[in-house]
Amino acid sequence: MTYAKGAAAPVTPPDIAARKGGAPIVCLTAYTTPMAQIVDRHCDLVLVGDSVGMVMHGLPDTLGVTMEMMILHGKAVRRGLAHALMVIDLPFGAYEESPEQAFRNAAILMRETGAGAVKLEGGTHMAPTIRHIVQRGIPVMGHIGLTPQSVNALGGYKVRGRGAEAQAILHDAQAVAEAGAFSVVAEKIPDILARRITSDIRIPTIGIGASAACDGQILVVDDMLGMFADFKPKFVKRYANLAADAEAAVAAYAAEVRERQFPSSEHVFGETTASAKGA
Ligand code: KIV
């Protein structure tokens, strides 16, 4: 669905929660103002993900992402949104120590960026933290299954919840919902487990590498636009090939500059018009 600017009131966390079992919730990440403007016209929820570290800053994982980076990109995205709910990630190290630390940094992100909610990774062990933040007025989106900030402990970006681990992931989802989160991202888990979680918990599940049965879907916007030619996770569908388009455009520019075809007469300024006007 395309929303005309100003036609619909901005989406709130309760609006997302109320979509449980209803029309699929459309979510994407964004990190800049121009991309936020495009995504806003089509999405219910925009996540300023800590994937920003890998996508925009060339980091090897999300562990090097700081509060300062999240604030900078959060402010940029906020300027581009008129409709979608903006959710911002708490970066690694900004919330795990204690519920108090988590609230303090969540409040900074909300105040500095104008986000409508924060997201944090973790299941049963993070439930008390989620409850603490929610009870103090900050909506929280959970994130279970593959939690990229724990990549070292997990031993890589493997599918979670296969076999005996399924029960633990289900408990994670239940704990996050019972702690008061308004929705939960379920990342890289088997389809059958995502379906079970979605039918079991009362808050919307937002799948990424999970199941079409989830209450909504999210992708990293640069992944689905094909900004990375060399890497495509199985769960990403490419809707464009912008890296190839950019490569071709830059190559054409370089060739034209070398052959003095650019700039041509339409891109340069004449003497007479400017001097006649006194410019
Ligand atoms: O940081 C991020 O972009 C995310 C999504 C992959 C859900 O957490």
TrEMBL record:
GO terms for molecular function: 3-methyl-2-oxobutanoate hydroxymethyltransferase activity; magnesium ion binding; methyltransferase activity. The keyword Nucleotide-binding does not apply. GO terms for biological process: methylation; pantothenate biosynthetic process. GO terms for cellular component: cytoplasm. Binds 1 Mg(2+) ion per subunit. It is found in: Cytoplasm. Signal peptide: none annotated. The active site is at E187 (proton acceptor). InterPro entries: Pantoate_hydroxy_MeTrfase, Pyrv/PenolPyrv_kinase-like_dom, Pyrv_kinase-like_dom_sf. CDD domains: KPHMT-like. It catalyses: (6R)-5,10-methylene-5,6,7,8-tetrahydrofolate + 3-methyl-2-oxobutanoate + H2O = 2-dehydropantoate + (6S)-5,6,7,8-tetrahydrofolate. Belongs to the PanB family. NCBIfam families: panB, PRK00311.1. Catalyzes the reversible reaction in which hydroxymethyl group from 5,10-methylenetetrahydrofolate is transferred onto alpha-ketoisovalerate to form ketopantoate. This is 3-methyl-2-oxobutanoate hydroxymethyltransferase. The lineage of its organism: Bacteria, Pseudomonadati, Pseudomonadota, Alphaproteobacteria, Hyphomicrobiales.
